[in-house]
Amino acid sequence: MYSKDLFSVIIPTRQRHDTLKHSIQSVINQTHKEFELVVMDNFSTPETAEVVASFNDERIKYYRAPERLSMSDNWELGLSHATGEYITVLGDDDALMPDCLEICLNLLNKYDVQTVAWSRGTVYWWQSAIVPWHRNKLYVRLQQQVALQFQARQKLKQFYNFEVSYDELPMLYNAFIHRSLIEKIKSVHGKYFMSSIPDVYSGVINAYYLENYLYSFRPLSVAGNSGHSTGTSSCYPSLGGKPFKDFLTDAKNDTKKRLHDSLVPSINPFMCVADVQVRTKELFFPEDEEINFNISTVVRAGASSINMDLGEYETRLQEIEELAKKHKIPTSEFNIPEKQTHQPQPYQGPISDRNGSITTWAINGDQAGISNVAQAAMLVWGMLPDLSFFKVNYLSKEQAITLYQDLNLKEINLIVFPEWNQPEQSLNEALTQAIRAIVTHPDKDKITLLVDSSPISDEDANLALSSVVMNLLMEEDLDVSDGPEISLVGQLSEIEWQALRPRLHGRIVLEHENKEAIAAEGKRIAAFKLDRFTQESL
Fold first, then answer.
1. 465 and 378, same structural domain?
2. pLDDT of residue 530
């Protein structure tokens, strides 16, 4: 059994006693009662200490910085006071769901993981929020009641390509991180936080040093956006930029001047995230060629979010164009949306995605009787299914090794997704070209070719492959004694695909492919045309 101090929750705070008390209350509301709550006060006026003292709870430990610190330094100081085995940071206008610790305890006891992370897609906008159409609105993300095992390196690659948000990374801000990982990272440069944007940075560096982690799509916290929110202030500077200006003052620098030389002066959130990417790579994994900072993806990400704050549209357009020009990226390579003519209006009810599926429910806080984030967390808790509906897709190390052995994986693993419904002659030709390219490749002894056979039976797939291989051996006198391996990939679960993708070097592009399978499983795998890699060293 774990000790009483299994969990440490750190709330760094600065002059936000009005929201802090509700964040503390959300921790007190936990169904699992054994925890340590560290309140790290960044040199606030006495009201902050008074709020903490009002709870009269021995589980709460209050510390006050001797002077005003930067956000990262205050987080670092809070981290030094935490004694638990698993540690998280909770924003001082955020809330933990009442069953957060209970769920994390169950997952950590049952599965061999160092980290449990969760989605921050459920958001409460306080009445004080600077964005008028969101005030006192609770947005509940309608996601599957499931936790998935994420391969950390694969997820980090996707983040560097702006394919996923940092919300899917194991940030200290949305995860319980094992103390040993924090200590390992601290040993590199002498402290844990090496960026002025500690939440995003922590997700990057934790993902780099982790092998895998569990990620819950069931919300374990409610993200709060109040009038104090630094992140919201940076996203909507034309509506109220004081919290972000205070952040810069505490950091004792000008964000526009401190951004990496590869970027351009800006306070735009996408540019700040890019700064975290490039600087963290330089500090911890500069020689890692698989995780690359790509300026083109930064430009596209900036363009896609240009209408977030209409009052900043012209400024952000100029910054995007300057960044593209600096790196000689033609503007024809990315699409910049036209400026919207009207700000959004307050809305409540269902919100659908592009496919028409309802993904979020917007709740009017006034009508629902909620006015703070702790109440919002209780309401969401009452909306969610019972924990008996919560499922976990997890693959142990032993199960992953068995999967790799069954597929005969080697040093280089490639995959094809044939369209099995095409005429037999064209199917045979496509498979013949792919297998011939592998068999004649200089590295053939190191290669396994995986053939997706999920739409048909193994018997039919084996029959087709055997015919192709036999014809190649008889008609072209090819030597396959030294490899490669050819294996069928049938119906795999999502968690098995999660384990397999990092071992795949690429997908061989066929003339006729199973587009449905590629959309589901192959879109995140690098694509190779036959004429590109036939004689290349892999």
1. no
2. 79
